[in-house]
Request: fold
Amino acid sequence: MKGFRVAIVGATGMVGRTFLKVLEERDFPVGELYLFASGRSEGKTLEFKGKEYLVEKLGEDSFDRGIDLALFSAGGEISKKYAPIAASKGVVVVDNSSAWRMDKDVPLVVPEVNPQEVKKHKGIIANPNCSTIQAVVVLKPLQDRYGVERVVFSTYQAVSGSGYKGIKDLTDGLAGKGPSLYPHPIVNNCLPHIDVFLDNGYTKEEMKMIDETRKILGDDTMRITATTVRVPVEKCHSESVNVELKKDFDLEDLKELLGKSPGIKVMDDPCSNLYPLATVAADTDLVYVGRIRRDESVKSGVNLWVVADNVRKGAATNAVQIAELVIGKN
Ligand code: A2P
Reply:
C-alpha cells in the first residue's frame, strides 16, 4: 500500500502522542508525517518509528502541501476553525473533538458499530466521545439481537480524559496540593461534573453520551439517561450500563453473543474475583465487559460493567481505525 501524507493536529497532547504510538503499532502506511500544535510547542520534536519530527505551529496554510489525512485532537475551537480549512484543501479529517459530532453532514463512527458511515463523509469524520465509544461497542450486538428499549449510563471516568492537566490535578492532589483544573480536589473525591452544566441540569458530557449513542446506533428515539462522574483514576473509564431490551433473553446466550462480538472481551467470573478493571484495560484496545447479570426490577433488563482505555479505544485507536477504513486498510 502506498504511503499517505498524514498530519496530526495537537500532536503534543495526550491523545496526539497516542495517535503516533497507535499509527506505529498498527503499521499505518505513513509516507510523510506533519506535526502541529500551538506556538508554545514550535520547534519541539516527537519521535515516530525511530525518527524525530519537528512540531510546527498550526496555521491556515498548514495544509497547503498535499496532505491526505489529518487526525485532530487540539480541542473544539481548533477543530471548528481548522477542520473545514483542511477539508477544503482535500484533506480527510478525523476529528477527536466534539465540534462536529452532531453535524448531520459528519459521520460519527465506531468501526465495530457503524463502519459503513465512513463512506458518507464530506471531508470531516468525527470520533465520538470516549465514554460513548466503549458503551456503543457493547450496545450494538444487543441492539441487533434483542432491540434496545432504554439505557441508564453511570460512568466512573479517568482524569486522563482531561488530558495532561487532569493527570496533573491527580498527581498534585496526591502530593497535597490543590487542584488547578477541576473545581474540587479529585483525590478522595468523585466529581459528578464533567464538562459544563447545561440548562436541563445535565452536564455536556452526559448529553454527549445520550445524543452520540442515538446517532451511532441510528435510533433517534432511544430512551437514554446518563450520570457522568470523574474519579481519581489515571487511565480507563469504567461504566455501569443498565439496558432494557425489547425482547427477552437467555443470560448465557447474551454473554456468548458479547464474547463473539468485535472489540469486546468478556471478563466475568465473580466467584474468582474476575471482572473488568481499569488496571487490566489500561494500554489495551479492547472493551472489557463483566458483572453481566439480569436487572430483576424490569421485564427484560441486563446490567453490565464496561471498562476501556479512554485515551486508546476511547480516542486515538478509534480514530486510527477510522483512518484505516478511509484508506481501505484491513
Ligand atoms: P500545545 O502542547 O502546544 O499546547 P491535551 O488535550 O492533552 O491538553 O492536548 C491539547 C493539544 O492541543 C496539544 O497538542 C496542544 O498543543 C494543542 N493546542 C492547544 N491550543 C492550540 C492552538 N491554538 N493551536 C494548535 N494546537 C493547539
Q: What stands out?
A: The mean pLDDT is 98. The pocket of adenosine-2'-5'-diphosphate is lined by residues 10-14, 16, 37-38, 40-41, 58, 74-75, 78, 163-165 (CB under 6 Å). The first strand starts at residue 4 and ends at 9. Residues 130-146 form the longest helix (17 residues).
